[in-house]
Amino acid sequence: MFEYFPTNYVWSLSVMIALTHGGNVGEVDEMCASLRDAAAGGDDPGTEAFFTAWTAGGDRLIELAEENLAKGRKISAGEQFGRAALYYAIAERMQAHGFEKRLEMYRQSLALFAKERELAGINCERIEIPYGGAYLAGLFVRAENAPPRAPIVVVMNGLDSTKEILQRSIMGTMFAKRGLSALFIDQPGTGEALRLQNFPAVPNTEIWASKIVDYLQSREDIDPARIGALGVSLGGYYCPRAVAFEPRFACGAVWGANHDWRAVQQARLRREGENPVPHYWKHVEWVFGAKDKGDFFTKAETMHLDGVLDRIKVPFLVTHGENDRQIPLKYAHQTYEQLVNSPQRDLVIFTMREGGVEHSSLDNPNNAGAIIADWLAEILGGHTA
């Protein structure tokens, strides 16, 4: 993985997320150039300096976008608003829970992403699914050249991703090109569900996954028998659990197998492996609505897939990077081995040959993502040519 900050995996990971989700390398370099000393101080110290630098980069793009908008150049303005939104979102995800400017920055990034979709004509529609007296927000991307009722992939976030960030990844276009619609969802514990609705993460993911299937089966442009699921990062736990207990999913796939997240937390407590975000323990307490670290570990105790996967009776794809420094490769083999009743189970380990060897292939997502998209298209009746 390209590590802009050689001694700081967590900060370098945010840089890679920006670069592989539509960021500009020159802009990212300009924002990061002044942060090298701060990054050397460790994951947590200096994140406010990161916030200041990346916010300033977003601010400059907004000025340029407003100038283009005044000239009627809506496409250019939309693209600049979109990159500003991305940089704001990266700045926000790096902060500690309770940082006073965090929620305001998140709301601004949402508004800018919406401007990008409107002005640049992005194939992406915001939707809201009733849940818990409020709603779960999603981004719906329509299949290209699809039949009246298209197959669809529900893309589930990880611990710290959001629907906007994942929609800006290669997943925002790769499914549509293969005749699959896609729904990027902020499930409980992520994105809007956590920040605006106060819905913490829950281990029994079928509770919210079933509501999503209900909604999709009510749409006239979706084939109710061809709804697939893809989990990214911690979605590698959420997705298999959802498919196991919600039989209306036609297939499932994971981009990073999170078979035993309970054990991963114990390992992180021993400082084994890398964390995805700074201020890690406060972050997971927030995500799970825990009072303290002990309460978090109690909630995490059931977050494993042992005794669950034999319920899956549809095709399932397990993928993992061979150099994943967050989730050990052994968990991909455990997930695959326990899919004993899947009529078609496939395991793909991404190596240096095709790239994508790091966590959820954030180092190089293109070839890995294409493999996943092709598999889903083949199973759901899309196309690969």
From TrEMBL:
Chain ranges of the Peptidase S9 prolyl oligopeptidase catalytic domain: 211-381
Classification via Gene3D superfamilies: acylaminoacyl peptidase, alpha/beta hydrolase
Domain of life: Bacteria
GO MF, one example: serine-type peptidase activity
GO biological process: proteolysis
Segment forming the signal sequence: none
Coiled-coil segments: none
Protein name: Peptidase S9 prolyl oligopeptidase catalytic domain-containing protein
Source organism: Acidocella aminolytica 101 = DSM 11237
